[in-house]
Amino acid sequence: MLAATRRGKIKEILMKKKSVKVSELCEMFQVSDETIRRDLEELEKEGLIERNYGGGVLKKNVIVPPLLFRMEENIEEKEKIANKALDEIKEGMSIFLDAGSTTYQVARAINFKGVKNITVITNGLNIAAELASNTDISLLLTGGNLKNVNYSLVGPDTVEYIRRYNVDTAFLAAAGVSAEKGFTTSDIFEAEVKRSMLGSAKTAIVVVDSSKFGKDAMVSFCNIKDVDKVITSGDQNLDVIEDLKSHVNIVLV
């Protein structure tokens, strides 16, 4: 097993259990203590964990949950956000739908509400699958390298593909939102894709549930003022949301 693959699986375990032990990982992957300790060192450098004598613990303010877990979190909030996002989509428009659990709900809302005559460009395989049978829209899927953990396509090919287009609106997902770090995501490759969508869209809208406010994921992809609007729900972290309203147009649903 490649080191990158093993570390990805360790991340998945961390998302579920919040901590890992060297001895358990050695048995699971059939590798030496030294190999696992090197893996944990790399995860510590990424800012994901705090190492201890017997293993590592997921940092409290880091959010890197796999998509399958995120899909079930705050589902009612995400559906509200998605329905509100449809107000920003008009017939004849072209849009980016970034990979993510909330943007996936936007895709579902497009289908459910019968939005017609739009062009959707996405790097999310699950989003493309959701919209694939909709003959009322023009669907474009970027190329790139697949991130199995969240069904997103990333990398230089993805960025190059996105930069070919000039679209009306980009709907972006985020793993964290704070005044200090801006909008953040789980890794540098996803950040590059989001920046390319920002640069190729006339309007940028972040769709994110309120649990992400006041938290930072690993990589910042833009500042608070770099987007035109944030659509969110108001069930959590209202104080943080209110503080950010002076920097960006925030729509609460």
TrEMBL record:
It comes from the Bacteria. Signal peptide: none annotated. Keywords: DNA-binding, Transcription, Transcription regulation. InterPro entries: Carb_Metab_HTH_regulators, DeoR-like_C, DeoR_HTH, NagB/RpiA_transferase-like, Tscrpt_reg_HTH_DeoR_CS, WH-like_DNA-bd_sf, WH_DNA-bd_sf. PROSITE patterns: HTH_DEOR_1, HTH_DEOR_2. One of its GO terms (molecular function) is DNA binding. SUPFAM superfamilies: NagB/RpiA/CoA transferase-like, Winged helix' DNA-binding domain. Residues 3-58 form the HTH deoR-type domain. This is Transcriptional regulator of sugar metabolism.
